[in-house]
Amino acid sequence: xxxxxxxxxxxxxxxxxxxxxxxxxxxxxxxxxxxxxxxxxxxxxxxxxxxxxxxxxxxxxxxxxxxxxxxxxxxxxxxxxxxxxxxxxxxxxxxxxxxxxxxxxxxxxxxxxxxxxxxxxxxxxxxxxxxxxxxxxxxxxxxxxxxxxxxxxxxxxxxxxxxxxxxxxxxxxxxxxxxxxxxxxxxxxxxxxxxxxxxxxxxxxxxxxxxxxxxxxxxxxxxxxxxxxxxxxxxxxxxxxxxxxxxx
Length: 248
Prior knowledge:
mainly alpha; Arc Repressor Mutant, subunit A; two-stranded antiparallel ribbon; 7 strands; 11% strand
């Protein structure tokens, strides 16, 4: 059977599309959970799982989308969008979600910086000062210190503070995203990082992603848009670590 035949067989039945969607949305799902979600007999489920065999992996009773399955899912969704008359944008492709990821990153950075500056001076959370960048509108002191850290002339003290903050951010992203695939920002925005099979990425790929995120993120995205976007990756080091961002 050719690749095209397998593709058409896999998406040609609504139950197989439902099974594929279920496994994609819930990597590591068990046979009994699929059975409950799809609500069909075990005999029918076994038949459709056999047809989907090239596109799923099953280890220790847990089902995940295979690499071929990810290609199938992405192509199916793009085709579905075109047939329904809606153009599928890049941010709809699994692995991109540019808007959500940007907002999640900003939330994470603001949370960590706020925690660090408030921990250094607890009263800065309650002391109001006029913010020149808001036309003199009063804001908590720690916010003005965060802004100043990015624009003030980088003498040795500022350089050391920035290096310390970057180290904290790297550890923060490595631990949370390596442990559960989600930083606090990603939890809020309901997205997470998985490897291309849908499994947890682990600490080593998370450390690589986190290091490039805090040091060379604009360059990483620029190279990714040129070299990795067609494969479904926003960042080059996302493709390098074989991991991408999906909805919860």
